[in-house]
Design goal:
2 domains; Isoleucyl-tRNA Synthetase, domain 2; elongated; single chain; four-stranded mixed sheet; three-stranded antiparallel sheet
Length: 247
């Protein structure tokens, strides 16, 4: 199918270049999947590997669950959107989030180290009520937290947020992936397993409201979200093992 597309469209591309005034040796045209090109790519990659310049690691990537692929930062577009900001009760604390459906992947809550409102909780575990029952979660201090955002308390979800992932690295927090590459919540979400993100968000919020876990909702919160440049669906930060090039 790819070769048919190339054969059909190569003359079109060449015609466009000729009209633009390109002066080339048209007999030496190459295509990405030409055998000699593939051989050069393999040879170059092997040299990079032998020289220790490429490595394999699991890191968060920009993943489109609709197209089923990851994208570089340059391929991600951003858009201002208005979404509800939920103020959720976490035991004695209240935090603000636009993504309550990822709460199953929280491995800590964080406050700014100089925020006097919460110093008594730093480095302690607090008891919280969740939509799946009672749990404990640790409170950490990190300068990443903006005391002016929401209540000054944020949830840390390392497997689904780039900033949270960096915080987790500094504090040796585990990653708990709760959204799969198919865009659905996995078994860590309990009865919400199998729901797509938007569906799960609605269901989780309804359940939290029934249990009195939402203090208030700001319906006019504006923020930037990452979108796939191809389909314009939201990008999901997901942990994925890939090859990386040292720079």
């Amino acid at each position: 199918m790819i070769w048919d597309f190339v054969s059909e469209n190569r003359p079109v591309m060449e015609g466009q270049l000729r009209r633009l005034g390109y002066s080339l040796d048209w007999s030496r045209g190459k295509f990405t999947l030409d055998p000699e090109i593939i051989k050069i790519v393999y040879k170059t990659f092997k040299k990079l590997y032998d020289d220790g310049l490429v490595y394999r690691a699991e890191r968060l990537v920009n993943y489109c669950t609709y197209d089923g692929t990851s994208f570089s930062d340059l391929e991600v577009i951003y858009e201002e959107r208005r979404d509800p900001l939920y103020y959720v009760k976490y035991g004695p604390l209240v935090l603000a989030t636009t993504r309550p459906e990822t709460k199953f992947g929280d491995t800590a809550v964080a406050v700014h180290p100089q925020d006097n409102r919460y110093k008594q909780y730093i480095d302690k575990e607090i008891d919280i009520e969740t939509v799946l029952g009672k749990a404990k979660i640790k409170v950490i201090a990190d300068k990443f937290v903006d005391p002016e955002f929401g209540t000054g308390v944020v949830k840390i979800t390392p497997a689904h947020d780039f900033d949270d992932n960096e915080v987790a690295s500094r504090h040796n927090l585990p990653l708990k992936q709760v959204i799969g590459f198919d865009g659905k919540l996995n078994d860590k979400a309990g009865k919400f397993e199998g729901m797509y993100v938007k569906q799960a968000r609605k269901a989780v919020v309804e359940e939290m409201q029934k249990k009195g876990l939402i203090e208030k909702i700001d319906e006019n919160y504006t923020h930037r979200i990452a979108l796939c440049y191809k389909c314009k669906n939201p990008i999901e930060p997901l942990p994925l093992e890939q090859w990386f090039l040292k720079t």
